[in-house]
Amino acid sequence: MSICDLVLKDQVRNYESYEDIDERQDTLALLKIIKKTMYSNGDDDTHMGYNHVIAVSNYYWVQQERFQSLQDYRDQFIAYRKVCEQLGIKIGESEDGAANILKKEKIVNPTQQQKDDVAKKAVEEHHAILFMLGADKYKYGKLLKDMKNDVILKKDPFPKTIAEACHILSKWHNSYSKYSNGKGDSNDGIAFATVTDEKEANKNEKKK
Question: What's the pLDDT at 203?
Fold first, then answer.
């Protein structure tokens, strides 16, 4: 309930079984009600437009919080994506994106199956890029900056799937970036060595 907006909370509390579920602290039953309410495309579409806007904005603005694990961030990202899909919102579909993949793969006269395949690839690539850009800037700032610079140089650095994005982020160790103010794990040893060298130099200077 903590991540539900006020309208959704009111809708959930209006269910006849809510009080009993709340009293029993039945998490699974509560989740079922929340899903049913969020994913509903039924006759009661009073808040449907509002729910669509909230679903899309939540998905596009999701960010990995400081110290949030990569797994938790991935689960949250996929959950927001599923909400959009259940509401019938098509995220990332683009004819230009599919055409671009066909061009890269040098497919001139694609069959319908090939068109369908590249359309799915374009959607997955869209999600993967969004996932990367939402990653923790303190931890992955340098990596994201390099990727953006590669795009300017007309390279293709971003992953094509969420799984590939998770693999890249999980293997990334250099957390030093402008966002971390030089306090990343990767440069701690360098910083310590520099300070130690300076102290030794000052000590030798005094002796002289």
Answer: 60
